[in-house]
Amino acid sequence: MKSVKRVSSHEIIVDEVKKYINQKNYKTGDKLPSVAELTEVFQVSKSTVREALRFLEGLNIVEVINGKGIFVKDGDVLRIEAKIEVENEKNFLLHTSELRRALEGKAVELAVFRADEVDINEMEMYLNEQVRLKDLHKDSSKVDWAFHKAIYKASKNPVLESIVESVHDTFNKFWNQPFGIEDIFDDSLPFHQTMLEAIKQRDKERALIEFNKIIDSVEENIRKVDGADRSE
What we know:
The chain is mostly helical. It contains 10 helices and 3 strands, in the order H-E-H-H-E-E-H-H-H-H-H-H-H. A 3-stranded antiparallel β-sheet has the order 1-3-2. Helix 4 runs parallel beside helix 6. The longest helix has 38 residues. It is elongated. The N terminus is likely disordered.
């Protein structure tokens, strides 16, 4: 293992431990160096090493047994790679979802009162096209993104629209087959329909409830993804 100096993130230590398991060809049940030894090797604090080990424990890659040491729980390097890759993507998407919940939630609230007939027709057109493509088992991600952009447009708040445009690439991760799964968010489609109905009826409370169901469904499906599935 090589020394890693002035490390501020446990993610680098996670990567180094993974490399170490690979280089040493460790198998399930093999014992890793102690926290004190890892601290010395990587030249980082014990808290950073412990945080990295907690992360690896959560992925069932290592097991820390009090009084005995740190043991490899999963020595399959390809599976480790997949688990860490998926976990990092999960964290990114979940953090982005929190931002989306705040920004788009406000857009939905404003759209309830400000959306005109043109806005409603545009949202309805995109949603109908999304349903059509889903029934044909075709990718509807671009149409879905257009539907959500139409909500921001209907808010009639140019500052909110500009903020969303500035984070377009980040938000677009939701519509670019995350984890390589094309239909990962299809479960949320019924809530798009009920949310639009609430917007049409100028029912703010109901529109926000249905919007939050969309985000809840998205986050639930993100959490369900297992890195083991992608290592095969």
